[in-house]
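Quick one: examine this chain and its backbone structure tokens and tell me how the chain folds. Here goes:
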Amino acid sequence: MNPNHYRFTSLWDLPAPPAAVLAVLERGEEYPHWWPQIREVAQVDATTGRARFRSVLPYDLVVTLEEGRGDRAAGILEVSMRGDLEGWARWTVTGRGDGSRVRYDQEVEVRKRLMRLLAPVARPVFRANHALMMRAARRGLTARLDGA
């Protein structure tokens, strides 16, 4: 097992229709307004941006994100990542009752030197940190949708 390779999946049921959820998720430049650990997003060009995130651990991760698959009809938004994390992330939004089922998948290889050095012993802490970040994302997205 490669201690620097991670796969994450989060599933959320939200009380908003898929179109409303996708409308928020498509605006990457607004993520810092509702997802507290995403500290900044800067657009590089029409299909690329740079993001900096930080959760409870004392380091920042900086990645360049490039638009990948964007299929609004299928409810899929995907980006590739490079920088401190290399890989991809995907939102999949489908209808569920009166609301939406949101699935977030991410597969990355850590490139940040400090994390690579600590991975053999700190991997459970890194996974817990990611879980905290995703819980905050769910709360923030729900609040954003309530205010939309």
Notes: Strands lie at 5-14, 38-45, 48-53, 61-71, 76-83, 85-96, 99-110. Residues 20 and 118 are 40 Å apart (CA to CA). DSSP finds three helices and seven strands in the chain.
